[in-house]
Design goal:
By secondary structure, the protein is mainly α. It is built from ten helices and no strands.
């Protein structure tokens, strides 16, 4: 139990420092200091800085239950897209440290990209299916894959805007912004 606690301290310190400074700029000595452990303890738990980075990435990477969300949709375009968008924004917000860590660490192994992009790719696949089914039901006529990419880009843009500005433009709360974006998107593909 104590070991897990120590590992968690190290992982938490690492994720914060990697997200603030990037992989290259952070030293194991600095991580150990922030975690409140010795550098030797850090290396007992993680054989290298690269290994620590990979473990921190694994621990904090997205693990949403998005499939269940898509299985519970009502097939009402605006209501469904509001649920989907709200859940996606929540997941992005909860994982902003890992996203920042990725932005700071472009020089790293491409395997990190593959792990990070697993979630958006799965999200796009589910959106493709949803829009295809909505087209089959006669609710929309547009290309499902194009709609999925557009909706994904809209959501990522909303997240990045709030992340960069640390608040939404014009002091609008996230839920109001989501509702507006969804309403405009839904009207644009049905009207």
């Amino acid at each position: 139990m104590c070991t897990l606690n120590t590992e968690d301290k190290i992982l938490n310190a690492a994720i914060v420092l990697f997200s603030q400074k990037g992989f290259t700029a952070v030293t194991t000595k600095e991580i150990a200091k922030v975690a409140g452990v010795s550098e030797m303890t850090l290396f007992r738990h993680f054989e290298s800085k690269q290994n620590l980075f990979e473990k921190a990435f694994d621990k904090f990477v997205f693990s949403p239950k998005f499939l269940a969300l898509f299985e519970g949709l009502e097939w009402d375009l605006e209501r469904d897209l509001n649920k989907i968008c709200s859940s996606y924004q929540d997941i992005l917000c909860k994982n902003q440290k890992i996203i920042l860590m990725h932005f700071k660490n472009e020089e790293l192994n491409p395997n990190f990209d593959a792990a990070l992009f697993r979630f958006p790719n799965e999200f796009k696949r589910l959106l493709d299916y949803y829009f295809e089914e909505m087209r089959n039901r006669g609710a929309i006529r547009e290309n499902p894959e194009t709609l999925a990419m557009s909706f994904l880009a809209t959501n990522l843009g909303l997240f990045i805007t709030s992340l960069v500005m640390n608040k939404l433009t014009f002091e609008t709360d996230i839920q109001t912004c989501i509702s507006s974006c969804v309403k405009i998107f839904a009207k644009g593909i049905t009207g």
